[in-house]
Structure formats: C-alpha cells, structure tokens
Amino acid sequence: MATLHSCSFSSLHSFPSVTLKYSRTQPRILRFNCRSSSDDKEDYLLDAPVSVGDGFSFSGGKYSDEPSPADEWFDRGKFVKAYPVSGTGEKAKDPIFGLTMGESSQASSDLFRWFCVESGSSNNSPILLIHGLPSQAYSYRKVLPMLENNYHAIALDWLGFGFSDKPQPKYGFDYTLDEYVASLESVINALTDKKVTLVVQGYFSAIAIKYASNHQEKLNGLILLNPPLTINHAKLPSSLSVLSNFLLGEIFCQDPLRASDKTLQSCGPYQIKEDVAMVYRRPYLTSGSAGFALNAISKAMKKQLKGYVEDTRAILMDNNWSVQTTVCWGQRDRWLSFDGVEDFCKESKHRLVELPMSGHHVQEDSGEELGQLIAGIVGKRSSL
C-alpha cells in the first residue's frame, strides 16, 4: 500500500488543487491534492526540492524551472555559520498537524547557516545591511552597488527569512527577540573582526539597538531606517498583527501573496514588480518552514515589542550612548507615524534625515539615494 509523503493545499483564488463546493443545502467540501509514493520513507515529508515544491506551501513549488531572479540572487551569495543550535536534536514537526518536516526545516547539528551577499573589498571598512520585517537581504540589492567602491557591504538574511536557515519553533530556535539579539552578536563576530557600521530597517532596529548597547566598542556607527521610536510605535500594524493570530495567522503565513506581496505593499507607496515579487515569494513557495517562522516571529514581536521600544528610547537617550546614530525616515510610512520622531531626535541629539518619497521600506523605495546617503554618512565619520 502506498505511503503518503506530502499533502498540498492551495488558496482557492490562485490554485486549482483545492475545490470548494457550497450551496445552501450542502456543506463546503475541502479536497486535498496528495502525492504518494511506494517507497519506505518512515515520515510524512512537508519539504521537497525546489523543482518539486513543499507539500505545505499554498502553491506547491516554483512557478517554473527556468532561471529566476531568486536563482541569480542566490548565486551571488554565500553561507556563514553562526550561533549554536539549541534543543534536543529531535526531528522538527509542523505546529498544525504534527507531521515531521523535511530536511530544510530541521535545525543544523551545530551552527545555523546565514545567507549573505557582499560587495566591495574585505579590506575596507564593513557596513552590515540588516533587513526588516518581513523582508530579505534582497531589499538592499540597489544599495550594495553604491557602497562597493569604498566599503565592504554585507547584506544578510535573518534566521527564518530568505535563504538563511528556518528552524522550526521549539526545535533549535524560538524566534524570541532576545534570541535574535544573541544571534546577531554571533553572526557579526563570524563576518568580521573589524568595527562595523550597522544599517538596520524597521522593527528589527530594536534588536540591533539592544545588541549595540552592550557592544558599543564594536560599532563605527548606527543608521536606523524607520525604526519604532515612540510609544505609538509599540503596537504592530494590522497587516503584521494578523500574522500572529491563532490559526488564521498560520494560514496567512503559508500564503506567499499574503506573507510577502500584500504585507510589503501595505506599508507605503511601494508597488512590487513581478520579478521582484518572485524573490520574496520564493521561501514560501518551496517550504512551509518560512511561514511557520514568520508566524513565530510575529507572535514574539507582538508580545515583546513594547518593552523593546521602551529600551530603545532609554538606550538612545542615555548619556553613556557613544555610537554616532542617524535616523533616516521615509515620510510615506503607513505603519509608523512620524509624529514624535522629530522631537525624539532633537532631545536625544541624533541626526534625522527625512526622505519624502519613501515609505517604511526605504531601501526598496529609494535604494540608490539611500546608498549614497549611507556612503556620505560613513565617509564623513571616517574623516573626523
């Protein structure tokens, strides 16, 4: 008798593998499209090679086997191993059905793999480009070329995002903000032994600031892109908050259109193009692990954000804070209000740069301009 290896289910509006029939007299029927095999694998598998797709993704895999922007971006990068894996080493299972997941969802045996893309010479001063929520290192693709002549620029994917490892919660990494702080220290140490300039965007800014407060001696400077700075920023916007909801959040996080396209475009003027969208969708198309990770970090962020924003304000206003800090603000941000930001920067004596045509994801809306701005800020500090 055949052994089931994966079951795929799809969103009704996009994919034909699920049929919903409804009438006033008949209940809705959800039909699953399952793949089976006669070999003797002992577990259900919810991951598969890219060309096949993951049984737990809404789409079932890549749209095409032709080369894509995601393939090209992947070819530019490398993996760096950093931050020790915790847990018992038990096989990870999905949080909905409890089925054992495939290889890409399992934690490494020793250290996690972080995907990084570099530009410029390693002999130059390093600039680490850190994406926000939810995004990828790919968001800095327009910034990297602007820095390559004079700096060693490195864009990385956080654990759970892009091409970096996506361990399942409770099986090596739980996606708490404290874990992210500790893991950031580990990956910076693995990337460089020089003093580094950190450029960090959005809600992950609070994590970088927390790290920086304990390692000021390792930083040349800190550039924050639309960070949560006021008490009104301590609550997630609805398009992120819904990703943390019970059951509904798990479902939305498995839909690449909801998890990437809709969320990225809800926070500003950004209109994502199809070839770019395919890079952001790729993790959700090929593995359920990306969605489960997004759900976990959304829950942690919703629970811990208020405390981290309070810490951010205290750290940046402390008299002992010695890191030169610049806040770059996209004025068309629909998630974080500009109200109170200018007053905070004046009171804390940190430089504020306003970008009137940008939204929350500044690097997407004004990549070249931001790259020039970063180069100017870092260059000015180096000449002092």
* Strand residues, percent: 15-25%
Number of helices, where a helix is a run of at least 4 consecutive DSSP H or I residues: 12
Mean pLDDT: 83
Structural class of the secondary elements?
A: alpha/beta
Distance between the termini: 74 Å
| CATH topology heading | Rossmann fold
* Uncertain ranges: 1-63
Specify the CATH homologous superfamily. Alpha/Beta hydrolase fold, catalytic domain
Number of domains: 1
So what's the overall shape? globular
Care to give the gist of this entry?
The protein has helices at residues 69-76, 144-147, 177-191, 205-214, 238-241, 248-253, 256-265, 274-286, 288-317, 341-348, 362-365, 367-383, and strands at 3-8, 20-21, 29-30, 33-37, 78-84, 111-119, 126-130, 152-156, 196-201, 219-225, 325-330, 351-355. The chain has 384 residues and is of the alpha/beta class. GO terms for molecular function: hydrolase activity.
Could you describe the 3D structure shown?
- The protein has about 375 residues and is α/β, with parallel strands linked by helices.
- It has a single domain (about 80-380), classed as Rossmann fold (3-Layer(aba) Sandwich).
- It is about 35% helix and about 15% strand.
- The chain has helices at about 70-75, 145, 175-190, 205-215, 240, 250-255, 255-265, 275-285, 290-315, 340-350, 360-365, 365-384; strands at about 5-10, 20, 30, 35, 80-85, 110-120, 125-130, 150-155, 195-200, 220-225, 325-330, 350-355.
- Helix 1 packs across helix 8, helix 3 (about 175-190) crosses helix 4 (about 205-215) and helix 8 (about 275-285) crosses helix 9 (about 290-315).
- The longest helix has 30 residues, at about 290-315.
- InterPro entries: AB_hydrolase_1, AB_hydrolase_fold, Haloalkane_dehalogenase.
- Pfam families: Abhydrolase_1.
- This is AB hydrolase-1 domain-containing protein.
